[in-house]
## 1
Amino acid sequence: MKCDGLIFDVDGTIWDSTVTVESAWNAALEETGYAERVTASQLKGLFGLPMLDIVDRIVNDPDTKKKEALLKKLTVYEFEYLGKFGAPSYDGLENALSHLSDKIPLAVVSNCQAGYIELMLEKTGLGKYFDMHYCPDDTGLLKAGNIKKVVRELGLKAPVYVGDTSMDEKACRDAGVPFVFAAYGFGNAEDPAAVIERPEDMIGLFVE
């Protein structure tokens, strides 16, 4: 598959933080006074959405100030727990990134909050393979806009985005970039340009 640069999603594509985040978010929900709780399985269906949308799906509450307080606490607890416990990257991913980064530039684009990508790169030790990364708090843009930004800044002519959800696929359509579906991740895809069953499949797909 022709490709002169790869852009990656985070959750469900690079690492699986859902078990750690489940504990963090439930602590935040309890401390903010909500009875609702989340599971790692539920989080797999929510990751990829902007954080405010995730909060609205977790709690049904018209109290905007209380939800804003929850959002702040979710971020604090998530960073605290991930900073302490980390989360696993997918088997074979580092080998794939090592091969790919020698041939083409790599980037990360996610709809996460500021600092999350940096934390992931630090805890996994994968930061050395990536040339740039963006999230909405960095630029004011959602995923499609940040994909376009990476394409422009890296001067890519044949970019590809690797992600694991239909939301990633839609962002790629909006950005005009081919979408490769990471079937080992959290979600589904309708009509991806290609499918990878494991991270190391990228080596044969994108580089000779």
## 2
Amino acid sequence: MTAPAGVATDGPMALEIGLAQAVAIVYHARQQFPNECCGLVAGRGSRIERVFWGTNVESSPFTYRLDPHEQLRFFTELDALAMELLGIYHSHPRSPAYPSQTDVTQAFYPEAAYLIVSLPSADAPAAEVEVRAFRIVGGVITEEELAVAV
């Protein structure tokens, strides 16, 4: 896949996500449509093993903010499971799976991947749903390979 103009592609790190975890993220996006969903993904190395569904306290189709109490609970659970935060995910209802200016401005975890689910409608066929991963560091967007492992 070729990156769109303005996306850095040098040195991308491949992330691996299990089919069950990918389906869980898309399902969460469908459940929250037309608002953005949000949550965290965790694992070891570059393998996503766990999805933490969060609550978007903004309840908005244009922005998200993870409930801070849930975020604290998720980080506590990550420590107990000896996992690391691998990424933050959210959906873009009716818009491309590409970081918005708001996403770039609010990218506070440079070590985390930002997974974005593009969902044209709540019942869109799987072929129309897109999930992509990015690193956002210092305002620079770098797309990462996101491999689904079965």
## 3
Amino acid sequence: METRPLVRADLITGVVLLVFGLAVVAESYGMPRLEERNINPWTAPGIVPGMLGVIIALLGAVLALRSVGGWRSAQTVQSAEDRSEARASIARLALCAALCVIYAVLFVGRIPFWLASWLFVFAFIAAFEWNSGDAMPTRARKLAIAAAVATATAVVVPYVFETLFLVRLP
């Protein structure tokens, strides 16, 4: 049975990503290039957002083209197990989006950046590595790894941005 709603959702998502990516490219092009200060053009503030916008636009176009049949693979839901996996994927996507919104809206700018980043990375790893069937030592090891990665991130990211890129973080 063909899953038409998935194809329609992919088309809509692809078009939205394409438009968003093009808007990011347009906005990044309008950012100051700092030519009057004789600054290297490759260090202009719009370079990275522009590249990311191009990537988002290209991937959105590929998704939209796939959904209308250009490169469509067989998109069938054949069993209850497949439907269950689809629901689990949507739940993981919702969790990811919620963690990102909490980080960007509630944490950054309200608490020190290093702490916001530590909390985000730890929560993200812990949430996506958590398995209710794991034994207690396995859970403890996963949480220790999450804490170690979060600590490294909380130290390295601010250092790199503030010391190497000379970007003041919130």
